[in-house]
From TrEMBL:
Xref: Gene3D superfamilies: Formyl transferase, N-terminal domain
Binding-site positions, (6R)-10-formyltetrahydrofolate: 70, 95-98, 112
Name of the protein in question: Phosphoribosylglycinamide formyltransferase
Superkingdom of source: Bacteria
PANTHER family: PHOSPHORIBOSYLGLYCINAMIDE FORMYLTRANSFERASE
Catalytic activity from the UniProt record: N(1)-(5-phospho-beta-D-ribosyl)glycinamide + (6R)-10-formyltetrahydrofolate = N(2)-formyl-N(1)-(5-phospho-beta-D-ribosyl)glycinamide + (6S)-5,6,7,8-tetrahydrofolate + H(+)
GO BP of this protein: 'de novo' IMP biosynthetic process
Keyword Transferase: yes
Binding-site list for N(1)-(5-phospho-beta-D-ribosyl)glycinamide: 17-19
GO MF annotations, alphabetized: phosphoribosylglycinamide formyltransferase activity
Pathway: Purine metabolism; IMP biosynthesis via de novo pathway; N(2)-formyl-N(1)-(5-phospho-D-ribosyl)glycinamide from N(1)-(5-phospho-D-ribosyl)glycinamide (10-formyl THF route): step 1/1
Amino acid sequence: MSTARKTRVAILISGRGSNMVALLEAAQDPAFPAEIVLVVSNRPEAAGLARAAEAGIPTQAIDHKAFADRAGFDAALDAALRGAEVDLVCLAGFMRILTTDFVASWAGRMLNIHPSLLPLFKGTHTHRQALDAGVRLHGCTVHFVVPELDAGPIVAQAAIPVRQDDDPDSLADRVIVQERRLYPAVLALVAGGRARLDGDRVVIADEAPDSVLFSL
């Protein structure tokens, strides 16, 4: 059995931490190549902080409203991450736009999950955007973070069919199921060294099963 050091991961949240919980649960498996060492929220009242604490994970609230500008907040966040000796950052419903300098300092070491099949439907209200566009497939994407919002090299995506009677809520309910499956699978790929950046693309060694990358 391998005794290789696990990748040390921090999760950034702003709310209830639904995808955070999926990552925490996956990391409980001794074979999982990552360990969650810190959960940080920019909102002290975020419900996800209590859920992480209940799971025995160190938490920290860094209230963005306590800082005069984004750079000050990002500096405090960076210090917290480095203090915890974090290798990889996972954004999970983190509703802050990070500065270019912060993103550059964590380039290739920060992942985000977005509720659409990027590059379609960036920003917010993605399920309404999908319905308004009349697409037949919708889903979620895990990608490396770059300065441009909801861009960056795509690691993996999961898709669902859009039904005739869907509304934004029903779409959201089905997409979140895929998010909770996809994000842990992608974290395992990246933390385990099976997914790596090659320029602006992601190369996956021993291509993962279709059910991980694309599911109906």
